[in-house]
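Exercise (ungraded).
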Amino acid sequence: MKTESKLEKVLASGALAVTSEVGPPRGALPDKVRQKANLIKDHVDAINVTDNQTAMVRMSSWAGCAIIKQMGLDPILQMVTRDRNRLAMQSDIIGAYSLGINTMMCLSGDHAKFGDHPMAKGVFDLDSIQLVQTVKKMRDEGKFQGGADINTPPKMFIGAAANPFADPFELRVMRLAKKIKAGANFIQTQCIFNLDKFEKYMEMMCDRGLDEQVHLLAGITPMKSAGMARYMKNKVPGMDVPDEVIKRMAGVSKEEQPEEGIKIAIESIERLKQIKGVHGFHIMAIEWEEKVPQIIEKAGLFPRPVV
Amino acid sequence: MITAEQKPLNEIINYISPYDRIILVGCNECVTVCAAGGRKEVGLLASAINLHFLQQGRTIEIKEITLERQCDPEYVEELVSEIDRVDAVVSMACGCGVQSVAERYKETPVFPAVNTKFMGASISQGIWAERCQGCGDCLLGITGGICPVARCSKHLLNGPCGGTSNGMCEIAPDVDCAWCLIWERLKALGMEKRYEEIMEAKDFRPAGGGGPRKIVREDLLL
């Protein structure tokens, strides 16, 4: 074990891990974090707290993580390189670890153009791969990115993201390999709707033996409506929603669409369980956290292992 | 070259309305090539300013001069015979030219008439695009001749983010994904393996993080 992370322990036990996420509120509302975390706490091993997702200002990820930690749960600190330089990120990592947060995700972040401060300066002092390297160096060498020694280094279990569906496809496994080489211990993927393409990606990943070097958690997002499916296909960069999924959602009445979306999510999990290299699931139910327990139960991922 | 675009006329007028005699100074270098502040634009702007004040029943004396290179003290010196006869200077050069004039003629206010944009290349007639951010440590030798610092919207050094679609950047459908271009070029050169080498965190001191930059060439000093 490299860390005290519960996620690391679950993955090391060989069980399929389950994570989900909480988007922090756009205001000083700690109870909102608690409410969302309470909806999913018994059904997941750890809870991601997003970092100004879609480039909208929200309660900071580490503060959300601290609230969740106080509840006796296991938060995952998300950190985007868009908003902070290497000094700020390293100090936040030490701060978070000092509050008992031992698992994190290293991301570059959506471009500020998409958020509520499109006039902001994007920092990008590091990219996501360099952030992975930095966190690993802090943990394994006890050194800051700049080279100085850390007195009591933070021991983070290191995650990174992968989007198997963005262009160019042939480069995606190479990019994953680079993240692993940099020090990623686990990967959470973009939402998977095109399972055929994902299978191909996993085959390429396993051919290179990367499944033995990293734990990949497959990203699952239940869709509420055919409209949401169309929106994700057409408007969300890097998202691959096949036409047959949209057809299936549109093929039932509006009232039945949420149920159909959940069914698709559960069926996807069942199929993904069979794929070599899938070590768990990351469920992103966007403003629909109350459905997460049902999906996890029906997909046979409950109860969660005790580690 | 350095590219620029003329400021809105209103802004320029606001700067100069307290004055009766101005000198409008163009530059024969980059801003001439990108049609923002050369001899021709100096003439056009002078006419526009004149017309504006005439409509208000006011006349203003405008002297037009275009220097060979406004960022060079040797040419800036050519204004010496004119400067005492005017109340203000309006420079149509890039920010370097404006500052060279301001530094030499400390008693006369100098106003910019253009917004300096970026270091770019001409793409086709009337189109220029950013190609270099002057990071001081050129990476083009390892990125297939395409710069991720200047051309990736997130300045990513290790490959495309998850927002690429059909070879375009997530920020706009008409912006190329720099990393798709780099990847295609590396493939064409048979250098695909290079992609998997991790580019370490960049030292931003040569990029300006170390304070204002300066080049001193001992061999050229007088």
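Further reading is listed at the end of the chapter. For now, observe: Residues 257-273 of chain A form the longest helix (17 residues). The two ends of chain A are 13 Å apart (CA to CA).
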